Fold this protein.
Amino acid sequence: KTVNLYHPSGHHTFYTGSLKNIAVVKGQSVTQGQKIAEVGQMPEFKFAGGSFHFGLAGKSNMESFCPYEYMTASARKSVETIHKKSIIRDRKKYPEICSPCAEGGCK
């Protein structure tokens, strides 16, 4: 499941993974800090918990940005804590919170 939030600048943020209890509907306005969904258990990975990915995209889906630089200090700390505790299958390939999107990297 995915939730896309479109911003007046033309950019959008996306949240995807094993989302549950999605609290927003298409066309609804949201405010900073508002709960939009929860991360649920992935049935195929009962031992590993949920899966969650988020990103910031430009006016076209071809542009990608690391959303980390746009976060508040407390949000960054939360993301860092989650990342350190997360199970990442290939830690060498994805060592950082915002690892390159492809061979050419993200814009």
Summary: The beta strands are 2-6, 12-17, 19-20, 38-39, 52-57, 64-65.
